[in-house]
Amino acid sequence: MRVIGGTLKGRKFYPPYLSPTRPTTDFAKEALYNILYNVWDFEGLKFLDLFAGTGGHSYEFVSRGAARAVSVDAFGESVAYIKKMAKEFNVEDRLTVVQSDVFRFIDTCTDEFDIIFAGPPYGLDTLDTIPDYIFKKGLLPKGGWLILEHNPDHDFTTHPNFLELRKYGTTYFCFFEA
User: Fold this and answer.
1) How confident is the model at residue 6 (pLDDT cuts 50, 70, 90)?
2) Cα separation of 44 and 65, whole Å?
């Protein structure tokens, strides 16, 4: 895996097998960041990475100038790996790693983030509740985006905050706006 843009562009990271992570493919990731790059100025953004896995999206945001990224994952192996890579990439001052159940984290979080990315396991029973949960807790300012990665088994096009859907094979990115 590699960072595809910014100051860390081209830096590779080799995560060990981290069950139950499912890293976003390079093809889908490049398409996603092309969309984001054309809409957002990354400089100074606050970013939240839910179900962070390998931390790939957090590395992309800090690489592109985000002031702060927070990676949340319940699995100790993932948390340890993201911390290791934050140190190796020398971005520990802008990348905070939290080991927590994502829903518990959302319940206790008092921060707002400009962009939230959620890449839950596709088989997560509560996947369909994630957008409502985030909007109910007020984690995004007006105009902030939630990006939910999911498979074709879910449809959010009628959600009141739905903005856009992009499909890359069986990887879907659903964009929501506060």
Assistant:
1) very high
2) 6
Closest listed residue to residue 86, CA positions, set 102, 63, 109: 63
- Provide the 3-class DSSP secondary structure of residue 142: coil
Q: How many CB atoms lie within 10 A of CB 168?
A: 16
Write down the CATH number for the domain with range 6-11+23-177: 3.40.50.150
Q: Are the beta carbons of 82 and 13 closer than 8 angstroms?
A: no
For residue 3, how many C-alpha atoms fall within 13 Å in the half-sphere facing its CB?
Answer: 21
Sequence ranges of the domains in the chain: 6-11+23-177
Residue 118 phi/psi, 5-degree rounding, is: -125, 120
Mapping DSSP onto H, E and C, the string for 161-176 reads: CEEEEEEECCEEEEEE
Q: What is the mean pLDDT of residues 112-137?
A: 95
Q: CA–CA separation, 47 vs 171, rounded Å?
A: 21
Write the secondary structure of 56-123 as one string of H (helix), E (strand) and C (coil).
HHHHHHHHCCCCEEEEEECCHHHHHHHHHHHHHCCCCCCEEEEECCHHHHHHHCCCCCCEEEECCCCC
Do residues 82 and 97 lie in contact, with contact meaning Cβ atoms separated by under 8 Å?
yes
What pLDDT does residue 174 have? 98
